[in-house]
Recover the amino acids of this structure.
């Protein structure tokens, strides 16, 4: 029996915090955001691959990207198209601004309800926050079971999805009924590369906001726009109670941000004496390099 | 009511270290807040752990025992935690930032519509004044964690919702039993009343412990050894330091070729390129073939007995001396200075 699955992949555009080298820190020790490119969150890429593999196995299945962010996050949907996704939605609204993980999950869960998928696949966590909270919170809001840290979605057993999980000290294979939320671990296979044919076609995909931005898109032929529109959904499109969105829906607040000041570049020479080593370790603690 | 709850995780019939670390921390938080410490433990046979929990200061232990709860499963475990927290209404609920804690706590926080902070490295009690409204809050839990790839340290608060929830990394807080165990209470949870058949829709088919794949690239701290480490046996020192710091062990090509370390650990032009926040190069001379793979690290410490070794030139801290003396001193100092 061939089953057609509707799969939503949750993906986030994030600053590339992995490549924070010495030049990514300003003189005053703050993060130089300009030096960090906006990228497709790495584990969300692993999640996309798992979705595309399901589509390979169950022809006729549909893979949709869902991302929440500012208008420029439409790039995530295009990147999904380039690698074989069938479409996507950009959740964007000023009312979403200032959302912590709980308010983010609320917005995503409302959009997912509107789509009505069989499977929701997300990266385990995003590299800008490393919280790993959004997947389970979305699952709870939808009242779906969750399977976290997936390394391989092995397939369907009857109506149930079989998933191999990567735990701290081992692996576990579980079987979950659908619909379910699966979060994918970095040890899962890398995403396939962009496909040249998809790239040529979908580089013209635009949101309405991007189309209005003439400076950016004026070279586009008018015809190419109509069927390559990336939908933008706001609070009005997904419904729900406004109090749960954005800042008002976020129980956690940032009280303080401390920038970690990286050391100057000249080498400091130390001896192997306990005093020297102890003062170094103390310094590493106070700069939160170790903890 | 209004106490501090610690979720107690067990693994292989033992209480996880992080749970005991949390109990130790909870004692000092409870003292500041003039409240009590409560523990919540779930499993198929966990009542045996109560003496140990009393020894670590739990004044009330909530025990949920059920043969269906032998292994952790998100749905039944979260149903129990949600039910107990709703009933007991604690001001703080803490979980280990483990595979289990990071799966369980967000599900619980969503159901309770309360804030959760992941992977805290420090917890403090403090006050807060809302700038806009001028509203003042007393005795909030400051949840302190690295963010933005470890480049900032954020203090997160949860002013209005309860419980204030956080997961805490293993090994960042000290684990200390009391000299005299508290004489606490045990509350047995009626699991049959809480659990429904729908909680068991996800089944575990297979479960086993495997060797973890080596993940050099993903590690924020790397301790790399070179040919100068001298032998495979000496590499053990690097693993000891790595265990203490929560680091991965890397190696130069020369060390891999000499059989001191597996090739999956090789860093450099022919190995992987890494950019951790801390790179400790041990017995590595610093040839370009190696440094090309690590010179973008945020901080570099070099340990080499040759003062002229080029690795010292790119290091932020260059320690000239014998690694057999230096590494044990680093471990000793770490233990003295860690909280």
């Amino acid at each position: 029996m061939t089953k057609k699955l509707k799969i939503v992949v949750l993906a986030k555009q994030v600053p590339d915090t992995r490549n924070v080298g010495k030049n990514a820190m300003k003189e005053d020790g703050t993060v130089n955001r300009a030096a960090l490119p906006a990228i497709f969150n790495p584990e969300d890429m692993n999640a996309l691959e798992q979705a595309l593999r399901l589509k390979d196995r169950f022809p006729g299945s549909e893979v949709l990207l869902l991302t929440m962010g500012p208008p420029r996050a439409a790039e995530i949907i295009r990147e999904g198209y380039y690698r074989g996704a069938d479409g996507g939605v950009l959740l964007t609204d000023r009312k979403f601004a200032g959302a912590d993980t709980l308010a983010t999950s609320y917005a995503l869960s409302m959009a997912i309800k509107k789509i009505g998928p069989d499977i929701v696949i997300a990266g385990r966590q995003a590299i800008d926050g490393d919280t790993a909270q959004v997947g389970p919170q979305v699952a709870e809001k939808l009242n779906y079971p969750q399977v976290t840290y997936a390394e391989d979605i092995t397939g369907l057993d009857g109506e149930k999805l079989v998933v191999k999980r990567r735990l701290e000290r081992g692996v576990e294979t579980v079987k979950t009924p659908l619909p379910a939320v699966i979060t994918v671990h970095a040890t899962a296979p890398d995403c396939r590369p962009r496909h040249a044919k998809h790239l040529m076609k979908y580089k013209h995909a635009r949101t309405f906001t991007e189309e209005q931005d003439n400076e950016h898109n004026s070279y586009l032929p008018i015809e190419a726009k109509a069927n390559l529109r990336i939908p933008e959904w706001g609070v009005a499109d997904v419904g729900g109670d406004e109090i749960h969105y954005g800042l008002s829906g976020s129980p956690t607040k940032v009280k303080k941000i401390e920038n970690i000041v990286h050391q100057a570049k000249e080498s400091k020479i130390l001896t192997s004496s306990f005093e020297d080593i102890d003062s170094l370790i103390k310094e590493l603690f106070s700069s939160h390099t170790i903890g | 009511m209004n106490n501090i709850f610690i979720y107690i995780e067990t693994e292989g019939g033992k209480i996880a270290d992080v749970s005991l670390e949390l109990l130790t921390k909870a004692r000092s938080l409870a003292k500041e807040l003039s409240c009590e410490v409560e523990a919540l433990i779930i499993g198929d046979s966990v009542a045996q752990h109560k003496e140990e929990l009393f020894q670590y200061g739990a004044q009330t232990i909530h025990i949920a025992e059920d043969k269906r709860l032998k292994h952790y499963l998100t749905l039944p475990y979260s149903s129990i935690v949600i039910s107990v927290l709703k009933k007991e209404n604690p001001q703080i609920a803490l979980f280990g930032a483990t595979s289990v804690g990071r799966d369980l706590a967000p599900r619980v926080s969503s159901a309770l519509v309360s804030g959760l902070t992941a992977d805290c490295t420090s917890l403090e009690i403090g006050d807060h004044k809302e700038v806009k409204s001028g509203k003042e809050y007393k005795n909030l839990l400051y949840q302190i964690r690295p963010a933005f790839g470890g480049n900032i340290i954020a203090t997160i608060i949860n002013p209005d919702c309860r419980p204030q929830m956080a997961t805490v990394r293993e090994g960042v807080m000290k684990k200390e039993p009391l000299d005299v165990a508290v004489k606490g209470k045990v509350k047995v949870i009626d699991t049959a009343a809480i659990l429904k058949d729908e909680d068991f829709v996800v089944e575990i088919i297979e479960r086993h412990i495997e060797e973890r794949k080596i993940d050099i690239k993903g590690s924020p701290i790397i301790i790399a050894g070179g040919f100068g480490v001298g032998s495979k046996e000496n590499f053990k020192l690097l693993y000891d330091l790595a265990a203490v710091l929560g680091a991965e062990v890397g190696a130069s090509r020369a060390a891999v070729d000499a059989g001191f370390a597996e090739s999956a650990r090789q860093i450099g032009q022919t190995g992987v390129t890494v950019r951790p926040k801390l790179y400790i190069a041990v017995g590595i001379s610093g040839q370009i073939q190696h440094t090309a793979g690590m010179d973008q690290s945020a901080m570099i410490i070099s340990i080499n007995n040759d003062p002229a070794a080029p690795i010292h030139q790119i290091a932020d801290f260059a320690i000239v001396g014998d690694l057999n003396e230096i590494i044990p001193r680093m471990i000793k100092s770490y233990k003295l200075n860690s909280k």
Q: What stands out?
A: Residues 260-291 of chain A form one domain.
